[in-house]
Design a protein that fits this description.
single chain; nine-stranded mixed sheet; two-stranded antiparallel sheet; 7 helices
Length: 231
Amino acid sequence: MRMMVMFEKGEALRHIGHLDLMRTIQRALRRSGLPIKYSNGFNPHIRLSFAAPLSVGVVGLRELMEVPLEDGVTEEAFTQEMNRVLPGCLRIRACRVIDDSYPSLMALVAGSDYRITFPITQESEKALARFEDFMALDSYIATRRTKSGENPCDIRPFVKAGACERADGIGTITLRTAVTQAGSLKPSLWLECLCQFAGADAFAHMIYRTAILTKGEDGALTPIMEETQHG
């Protein structure tokens, strides 16, 4: 059987890389006593898979992973036993048993929702003042840093929707981004481009990924967990 797991990677772990996160969860799975299914061969290991790795520095509120288990584990038991051995800043929020015929999580990923929060300062106010103009652009060429080097890329097609607001001295920007043939967009790069466009210096902020998205039956982007539940 396969368990789709929604978990939170809290602010205290936002600078922990993906490989360290994987090792932490694998150790927790072993300590939990749950009947984990291992690979065959001379070096058995847990075939743990994630929907989409989280960028270093970003908080993950609804991250998704898939855990192979022997039959008979309930969703309630999985959540209880894992949260018993996980640190408080890494928690299981929900899980769901999925059929073996269900596609892999990585194959389902079509986008992400993000929230960026920051104190209102002179520089962040400059950025907010030009937000609508920036979103109205048909294209914006930025330099993306990849393993193969620095490459120019039009980041505008990655952003499907966005909004901003101010309340009690705090600014909030929400973004819905899509995965395309060119890859995906880091929200930190998008914010850097907004600042360049607005003539604003970089300012302190916190980025949260609030959902990992797939394409629903109508083609619209929707959270994977919700689409699985409705299916």
